[in-house]
Amino acid sequence: MSKDKKARQAEKEMEEMMEELAAEETIPEETRPEESNPEESGGEKPETEENPLAKQLEEANAKTAEYLAMAQRVQADFENFRKRNETVRADAYADGRKDVAAVMLPVLDNLERAADAAAGCADEALKNGIDLVLKQMREAYQKLDVTPIDRLGEKFDPNLENAVLQGTEEEGEPGTVCQVLQKGYRMGDRILRHAMVKVVPE
Q1: CATH architecture for residues 60-143
Q2: Around Cβ 200, how many Cβ atoms within 10 Å?
Q3: Is the pLDDT of residue 202 over 60?
Q4: Where are the domains of the chain?
Q5: What CA dihedral angle connects 45, 48, 53 and 54, to 10 degrees?
Q6: What does the alpha-carbon distance between residue 51 and residue 112 come to, in Å, rounded to a whole number?
Q7: CB 198 within 8 A of CB 181
Q8: Which CATH superfamily is domain 145-202 in?
Q9: pTM
């Protein structure tokens, strides 16, 4: 191919390219694809093929957060329920022990009276039997953390004792217990029975 022919061919290709460019520039603005402008659209991204997936992901994350919060509430409610049950069970057990110990106190009183009466008895077997039962009863009360309230000579305490008799000044210091008529008992900090005492007036 001659140089002139090559030059004409090149010129023709150039003209075709220029025509194509001119045709693109004359496309009406309304038919051109809209360019995204974050400022004009209020910062929102144009709707693309990825937006539906992003929306689904956002909804899934919201559901996950909702279910997690629900699970945490259920777990907290169950923990509170378990703690309440433990407290109720412990209180019921303590009340049951207290009631049983209180009911058995007259038996302990009678065993102590029987032991005192048998102290001068000639029947050693009877005396030893009563002493043995009394010892076992006291050991059982010790295991229940039950201790006697016997505060002879101490300052009268209405929280621990009931004053049923009034003594004289010769029987002790004013306001003190001069005689214990019936021992009281407590289980830890809980009073099973107040002591019945005689008190010197102040």
Answers
A1: Alpha-Beta Complex (3.90)
A2: 20
A3: yes
A4: 60-143, 145-202
A5: -10
A6: 90
A7: yes
A8: Head domain of nucleotide exchange factor GrpE (2.30.22.10)
A9: 0.56
